[in-house]
Amino acid sequence: MKIANDQQGMALALEWAAKGMFITAPNPRVGCVVVRDGIVLGAGHTQAVGQAHAEIQALADAQSCGNSVTGATLYVTLEPCSHHGRTPPCADAIIRAGVARVVSAIADPNPLVAGAGLERLRAAGIAVTTEVLRDAALEMNIGFFSRMQSGKPWVRMKAAASLDGKTALHNGASQWITAAPARDDGHAWRARACAVLTGIGTVKADDPQLTVRAVATPRQPRRIVIDSRLEIDLQARILQDAPVWVVCAQADPGKQAVLESLGHEVICLPNAAGKVDLPGLMRELGRRQINELHVEAGFKLNGSLLREGCVDELLLYLAPSLIGDAQGLFDLPALTSLSGKTVLAFHDVKQIGPDLRILARLT
Q1: Is the pLDDT reported for residue 84 higher than 70?
Q2: In angstroms, what CA-CA distances link 243 with 43, 151, 224, 299?
Q3: Which of the four pLDDT bands, split at 50, 70 and 90, describes residue 159?
Q4: What span, in angstroms and rounded, lies between the C-alpha atoms of 16 and 249?
Q5: Which of 74, 226, 245, 329 is deepest in the core (most CB within 10 A)?
Q6: CA-based angle 214:218:221, to the nearest 5?
């Protein structure tokens, strides 16, 4: 493929970044291509944590193809790192390779980098261009940016409902309101998250696995259960195949010891009301390097998370059907004035099979 301009070069780098969608966490998803005279010399994306970053992969790919990168332009979706972490600085490798120009989509929000990588390149005489397809690069790593800038993960709340906003009948029946394509699409969003969170109510009612099954993924996201009184049944399916973080508000040393003997971790985070401190949990998940948190819970926990300011966006699948009197999406208090409404902005709207997928962000 011939690269005619910086936008095309960065678009290809973003395609490479997407190849690392499910493997790079807690590191960002980064893609890189090396180009000279419109010809792609090498390409790569960041590997699993502790392995090579995108720039190193692209330079090695060029070398393996017998291509010299001297005088070439390197397109990378995130500023090259300048510090020694689990791997050496990518900026130094770029300088040694003899690259003449670097085009970066967006600066790295990590305080250990934060412009230092680009400055190191400039100091070495490399021409630097920034802010090319910046918005697309930010979307690729929205959770990483959230964690670096706020100390908390990007929280995406997923729900499926009828067109009149009903998620289940009063007897709990909910399978299936939406069609298979929407359910499969939901698994893709689940797969990209670092962790999936639900509540004890959902565990009791549905006994879900909350694993990724509809799309291929090399790793499963961590699962988290909000369970204030440690009521979870030890035979619950969510506890059977991998360690789970169970978040409580009331200590139960006996139950905690049993859960921990099975490989799970109990995190006790009470608030003043004796419930789980949800904002505190978001900060704790940030400390645990969770970039994107995917919520699949019932209307009560959904409402609590929204009321306490713990949600960044809603991922809603709406089916072309009406259910009537049934369970809703969120348990929110009645308003006395519309000025108290929660305001969102539509970020993306797309039809998935017969259903509508809406990505709406809190403003």
Answers
A1: no
A2: 36, 24, 9, 25
A3: very high
A4: 43
A5: 74
A6: 75
- For tokens 């301009």, name the residue: 5
Count of CB atoms situated within 10 Å of the CB of 148: 19
Asked about 231 being catalytic, the answer comes back as no
CA dihedral over 17, 28, 63, 125, signed as positive or negative: positive
91-94: list long-range contacts, CB under 8 Å, 24+ apart: 91/117, 91/120, 91/121, 92/120, 93/55, 93/56, 93/59, 94/55, 94/59, 94/121, 94/126
Interacting residues of 362 by C-beta distance below 8 A, sequence separation 6+: 311, 312, 313, 314, 342, 343, 344
How many residues are recorded in the chain?
363
Q: Which of 55, 79, 296, 313 is catalytic?
A: 55
What is the pLDDT, as a whole number, of residue 81?
A: 87
Predicted TM-score (pTM) of the model is 0.93
Residue 154, preceding bond cis, omega within 30 degrees?
Answer: no
**Rounded to whole angstroms, how far apart are CA atoms 56 and 44?**
8
Spatial separation of the C-alpha atoms in residues 48 and 22, rounded to whole Å: 9
Tell whether the torsion through CA atoms of 251, 286, 192 and 90 is positive or negative.
negative
pLDDT band per the 50, 70, 90 thresholds, residue 196: very high
**138 or 168: which carries more pLDDT confidence?**
138
Q: How far apart are CA 196 and CA 217, in angstroms?
A: 15
The pLDDT of residue 1 is above 80: no
Query: Rounded distance, CA 308 to CA 283, Å?
Result: 13
CA torsion, ordered 188, 192, 193, 195, to nearest 10 deg? 80
Distance CA 361, CA 117 (A): 31
What local confidence, expressed as pLDDT, does residue 114 receive? 81
Cβ 30 vs Cβ 136: under 8 Å: no
Q: Which token pair is 203?
A: 């565990």
Distance CA 225, CA 119 (A): 44
- Distance from the Cα of residue 192 to its chain's centroid: 5
Q: How far apart are CA 76 and CA 67, in angstroms?
A: 18
The identity of residue 358, as a single letter, is: I
